[in-house]
């Protein structure tokens, strides 16, 4: 017994030494990892350059819908208020210094939201470190008398600026893009008077403890509000277009109006294209559908673009099935379902080219982030060129050797 007791003591001591070494090594590695993350999250990085010939202008509007009472706020009786970002083709050389990724008030709120703690602050690029390519409030380019207009809705909890890479590339090719920041659903919204509001449970679909069926009911209600937001913005754009004091007076070609969005914003695009005849064509980027469009379908040209393909994506098979059902009423030759191999849900946003842990978490796919955004932009532009500008694109005819990651679903 003495022999075995001594052997166990030796082994126990060895195990303690090994465990202690592992803990010490973990602390060293963890500390080194935090230092690395701290450096990377504060390192300046430039978003991919837009590929078109136009310089890019950017401005922001604060619009209040006096016809609607806010339902997501904890303060009763206030009207629905939206911050709306507009990117547009700009005159070259009008400004020497590009605008910040986000204005200071927005950036502080965005960083605080995405940080939330010492470690969180180190795990994702800070807004102040990101360099975009737009110029603030510069003159609209005079190359065209009027420009086609795209209205963009972000994913739940996100801002339209979280898709700056995609939007800037579209604008550089001659589109005006209008991005809606959905108040109380977006992570943070900074109004023109300095007020900052964050998302509420009512605005983002309930709390984490709610059962799935309750959350689904909330999302159906939110979908109605977001659709009404888009229709309100359409009305405001008509007013801007007819106002002699506006930068955009007479310059918005609202007969060439398209809608697109990511995730819940993509579902909103589909619903509004069903509800409002002013939508001439629409795109849903990786969004499950809600609202009447699910049962009643669409009649406008429409494209669904999803992460993954039917061959490599178990979690998106329902998206493909849902898309086929909604497109059953769209004329043949005007409906498309595309999957992109190697992409995940957040690859459609700027997070794919920022420093973040999303790839390790499986929220970003294995595809290079800039490559995924380049593919997205190419097909979004090809679709709107075809149906808004009457310039049919060969990319919509089927697989293309330049983009082998893209698969067309059979309709």
From TrEMBL:
Origin: domain of life: Bacteria
Acyltransferase is among the record's keywords: no
InterPro entries named in the record: AB_hydrolase_fold
Protein name: Alpha/beta hydrolase
Pfam hit, one: PAF-AH_p_II
Regions crossing the membrane: 12-36
GO molecular function: hydrolase activity
Keyword annotations: Hydrolase, Lipid degradation, Lipid metabolism, Membrane, Transmembrane, Transmembrane helix
Keyword Transmembrane helix tagged: yes
């Amino acid at each position: 017994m003495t022999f075995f007791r001594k052997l166990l003591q030796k082994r126990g001591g060895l195990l303690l030494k090994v465990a202690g070494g592992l803990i010490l090594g973990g602390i060293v590695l963890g500390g080194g990892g935090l230092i690395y993350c701290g450096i990377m999250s504060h390192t300046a990085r430039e978003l991919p350059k837009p590929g078109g010939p136009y310089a890019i202008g950017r401005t922001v509007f604060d619009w209040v819908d006096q016809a609607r009472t806010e339902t997501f706020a904890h303060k009763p009786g206030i009207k629905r208020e939206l911050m709306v970002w507009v990117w547009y083709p700009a005159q070259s050389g009008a400004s020497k210094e590009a605008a910040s990724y986000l204005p200071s008030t927005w950036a502080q709120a965005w960083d605080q939201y995405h940080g939330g703690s010492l470690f969180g602050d180190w795990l994702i690029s800070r807004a102040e470190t990101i360099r975009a390519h737009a110029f603030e409030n510069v003159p609209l380019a005079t190359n065209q008398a009027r420009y086609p207009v795209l209205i963009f809705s972000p994913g739940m909890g996100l801002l339209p600026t979280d898709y700056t890479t995609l939007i800037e590339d579209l604008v550089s090719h001659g589109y005006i893009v209008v991005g809606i920041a959905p108040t109380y659903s977006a992570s943070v919204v900074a109004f023109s008077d300095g007020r900052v509001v964050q998302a509420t449970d009512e605005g983002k679909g309930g709390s984490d403890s709610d059962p799935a069926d309750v959350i689904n009911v909330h999302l159906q209600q939110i979908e109605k509000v977001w659709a009404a937001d888009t229709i309100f913005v359409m009305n405001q754009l008509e007013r801007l277009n007819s106002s002699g004091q506006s930068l955009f007076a007479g310059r918005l070609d609202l007969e060439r109006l398209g809608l697109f969005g990511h995730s819940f914003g993509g579902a909103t695009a589909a619903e509004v294209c069903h509800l409002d005849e002013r939508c001439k064509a629409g795109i849903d980027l990786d969004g499950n559908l809600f609202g009447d469009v699910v049962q009643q379908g669409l009649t406008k040209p429409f494209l669904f673009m999803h992460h993954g393909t039917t061959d490599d994506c178990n979690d998106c098979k329902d998206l493909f099935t849902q898309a086929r059902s909604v497109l059953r009423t769209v004329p043949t030759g005007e409906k498309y379902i595309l999957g992109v191999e190697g992409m995940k849900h957040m690859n459609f946003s700027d997070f794919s080219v920022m420093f973040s842990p999303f790839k390790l978490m499986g929220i970003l796919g294995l595809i290079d982030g800039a490559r995924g955004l380049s593919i997205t932009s190419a097909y979004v532009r090809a679709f709107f060129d075809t149906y808004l500008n009457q310039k049919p694109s060969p990319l919509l005819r089927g697989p293309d050797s330049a983009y082998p990651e893209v698969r067309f679903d059979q309709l």
